[in-house]
Amino acid sequence: MDDKVKIIEYFRSNIFEAKSAYNAWKMIAYARAMPVVGKELAEKYTKVQNYHAPFFTIAERSFLVTWIVMICHVFDNDSRSYSLAKVDSESYNNFVSDNENSFVIEQLKTARNKLFAHRDSGIDPKSITIPSVEKVDSFFNRLEDLYNKHSGIVEKSATSFNFAEDVKHVMEILYMNLERGEAVRLKEIDIEWLWEKDDNKASKKV
User: Fold this and answer.
1) pLDDT tens digit string along 116-172?
2) pTM of the model
3) Rg (CA), the chain
4) Where are the alpha helices (DSSP H) in 38-118?
5) Cα separations (Å) of 42 from 20, 23, 78, 84, 131?
6) Cβ contacts of residue 180 below 8 Å, gap of 6+?
């Protein structure tokens, strides 16, 4: 198989997985944000996350690490690595040198290198920031355009990455089902302790 075809196939999967993990991360981290969803819903999402806090804490960080590490693969300059630059170096270099793109790439690489690939002992983790979701959303859109430009050269095809948004709807259902389950659990406790085990229930008294 031609190397350029392998590169295109790899990054088709890579970008999709990175964007899926990014959307999953947003559904945990930003569901708690009142400016995003409003006070009432933010409190609902936070309450549901608190039902299983250890899981959501680990999942949030795992999704964050996954999408940052995977998206940085696109911009790995090691000669042994797959790189879109090997498909069309001119458009790739123009993308990387663009001010908006270079800002996002630099921040994501710093987070990967200083926090996730290894922990830099001289760095305060709180000093490492990642771009806003608005900037990252826009970045993904531009990256998809770059990918499709390269894919058009190699395969005469384009890919829609919109299905990477589906994880948000799945997680929305997860939140609602966890809330339903918790309501049922509490009702069962009420029935057991305030009725079934009450010595004054009618079946014992009449």
Assistant:
1) 877 666 667 777 788 999 999 999 999 999 999 999 999 999 999 999 999 999 999
2) 0.90
3) 23
4) 39-51, 53-73, 89-97, 99-111
5) 22, 17, 43, 39, 22
6) none
